[in-house]
């Protein structure tokens, strides 16, 4: 095992609450309401696939492209106002950086990643970043993880994948990686029965990775 691949939203940065708040705000403006089930099912997917679920469940007449443009503008504005790291992020990165190549694999567009990296000053930790910008099939399809692995020059069996959502975890599993789920308040109810380990937080995940590494050596 020589690489650790991180999801971003809800895993590295506390951004899911922003997406959920924007989703509820937009629904209210359209005279609709949106359920936690809908917002949860959108998580981890490619942007257009995600917003298409939103449009379908709310019965909206706007196109997915129109809704996506509206949502991304609002989310990006909120992120530029300040983004918080998930608990334990700096400690976990420092624990792992000396023993593993690190990468980000996110369904978010590249400009969102740049804002997050600059805000938290963590870009130098990562050897590769894979966004949704050049992905045809979003999570839970394994395409995005396979591309991230190719950028690292690592095989699936050499990679750990850390995810907070069921969709993302399934993508990592289908890619052939060792998957560690780190559920949040927004995703703890999702199906993680297929993952290799369910961590309490990022530090627990990092400890699991290091313990496996010690066993292998």
Brief characterization of the structure:
By secondary structure, the chain is an alpha/beta fold.
Question: Which runs of at least 5 residues are low in confidence (pLDDT < 50)?
Answer: none
Give the number of helices. 9
How are the strands of the biggest sheet laid out side by side? 3-2-1-4-5-6
Tell me the radius of gyration.
17 Å
Derived structural class: alpha/beta
Shape: globular
Distance between the termini: 10 Å
User: What's the order of the H and E elements?
Assistant: EHHHHHEHEHEHEEH
CATH level 1 name of the largest domain: Alpha Beta
Could you describe the 3D structure shown?
The structure is a single chain. By secondary structure, this protein is an alpha/beta fold. The protein folds into two domains: 3-14 and 83-216, 3-Layer(aba) Sandwich (Rossmann fold), CATH 3.40.50.1000; 16-80, Orthogonal Bundle (DNA polymerase, domain 1). The chain contains nine helices and six strands, in the order E-H-H-H-H-H-E-H-E-H-E-H-E-E-H. It has helices at 16-29, 36-42, 47-58, 64-80, 89-96, 110-120, 143-152, 166-175, 202-216, and strands at 3-6, 101-105, 128-130, 159-163, 178-181, 197-198. Strands 3-2-1-4-5-6 form a six-stranded parallel beta sheet, sandwiched between helices. Helix 6 (110-120) links the parallel strand 2 and strand 3 (128-130). The radius of gyration is 17 Å and the shape is globular. The mean pLDDT is 95.
Offer a few descriptive terms.
217 residues; alpha/beta; Rossmann fold; DNA polymerase, domain 1; 2 domains; six-stranded parallel β-sheet; 48% helix
